[in-house]
Amino acid sequence: MSAAAQAQQQNRLQRMKIAPHKGYTKIDLFFAAPPDYALSSTRDRVRLVVRETDAPLFRRFRSYSDPRVAGVFTSLRDGGVSVVIPVKGGGAVAQVVGGGDATLLSLVISTNKGGEAVQPDILPGREAILSGAAELVNAVGTSPRAALPFVPTDPKLLKKLLTADEVALFLAGEEMLYVGKGAEAVQVFTQFGQKPQAVRALAGFRLGEAYALQERNREALAAFREGIALAPGHLEQAPEMMQLYAEVLAKTGDQVQGKALLVRLIGEQAGTPYMAPLMNRLAEICERHGDTEQALAMYRTVAQHAEGTEAAGRALMKLADRELFKIQRGRYPLLQQRYQAIYAAPGGQALRDEALFKIALLPALYGPAAEALDSVATYDRRYPRGIFSTIVKKMHQQLLLPVYHELAQAKDDAGLVQLCQDHRDALALCLAERGFIERLSAAFEATGKRAEEIRFFSYLAERSWVGDNGPFLLARMVEDAFALGDVSLAESTARRFLMRFPNEARGYRLREQLAKLSFERGDLDEALSLLGFLKGKKPLPEFAESSYYFGKALAHAGDHKGAEGALGRFIQAAGTSPLLSDAYLAQATEREALKDPRGALAAYQQAEKITDGELNQQCLYKIGELYLQLGMPARAAESWEQAVRQGGSGSWVKLATISLQDLKWRLNLSKELR
Question: What is the pTM of this model?
Fold first, then answer.
């Protein structure tokens, strides 16, 4: 490519705006097209690299200074733009703030004394996916259920303390705990609060487990402590309760004692299958409280020494997660392979589900839009419900937008139609974008798929997330049905539109179309009702014939003045309409009813010019009548003679002959009388 051609391929940073705020500085970068960028930061500077972009050097910003930023330095290198921002005081933190304009990149810079922050090298436009996924991934942890097996209370012990019905109730509560129904278990065990001390102690420990299962850690801690106060040695005999108590301690702020209890349990379980999952729990506590290196060391130990177990898979997942939001864009397939290995290895459904979600998440953040969409859609189809289903459905919607933009820009109408049909339940964000539904409709029309458009739009019109597109969808279905000759479908859809959207502007066109059908069926009353809006000055009819139907309907209702006006408006706009001759005749009739013979005469004269046969003879006869009425017998005779000369046996020729003979007799009689 020539240098000029290469320059045309580049984006351009056109201008820059800096605004200091309380606690942060915002830098707006305005580009000619959506930028392809990477953002990173160290303790004392932020660097933004925008690929395949040129820019002015913005030298005046080099001396800029505020409480956080010490200048902005722009340079050109490797075919792109580098923007370096020194940050005062260390601990630079930078993030991109999304907005409605894809060509605007807004950097928010603040300081954090805790250390460095790195913005993931995601593709432009994927910020919403990153935000939602990062929040979910950070929130998802190990199940609150104990890693050690659940041991029910000995029924013999309970029978010594409780009645038969109370024993059954207590065991039912433990069954609920076993199957994970924490809320139901709380309701059961709170019923034992007034029992003897030994029972209250057992119920307190079980209540602590039930609260822990719901992540109600403060309440769980209080219940455990009540149990310990009543039966101090019980925890030593129930390892699974000790584990949950240790984790509740750590989660509520006493991580030292919580870690100590877990370390003790790990020692007691050395050589058993439970040692590895307990080490994972301890690693999570360490990581949660900032001891990242110790946590990573424990995860590596579990992955190495418990290979082939679910605990090893969980440890490998935690290690892979460390890179999930830090890798460079081009390296995501390598991390994807690690998650695929976790998915393929032994493990529970929850672990496999999480691995599969992250396999789909990686291309959604870092990969081409079409590949990312396929990956997320596959996950959505395989796992429509579950902990990740909500975020996946949002990702599905967000990834449809860039794929739609690519197809629209390439003018790939067939591809766009297929895309929307394949992902019809994920179109909410696309439908919210201005111009999308019109572009999709044009693609259906360009590919000759009107029947498919009707079916597809009918489906969309019933979805709650269709937004403001409902009127367009139904109106378009009407047009398609008329184009395909399916008058019944067109009529039913138009009536459906008017029922749902009675005040929508597109409804006027549909009323006109329905009025035509009513008129053709002879239902002039309904035609009049549908076209009632034409009595006002606005809106004007979209179809000129609507004024004709309205005029005829008004005439049928006896409104001669309104009918004459409507017919006149049609005549002015009719052009070469086949209805024009009848419109003149109808207008003349209404003018006669309004006692306007000259106006009626003019209308008949216009009709006579564009008619032939009996209609022409009718016009000539009526013209003669009106001339005679206006006191011009010679003109009347000329008109009747013209009708008679046409010959034939039609009724209008006969009437003209009789009228002409009568006129001549009266004229002759008048001469004789003189």
Answer: 0.70
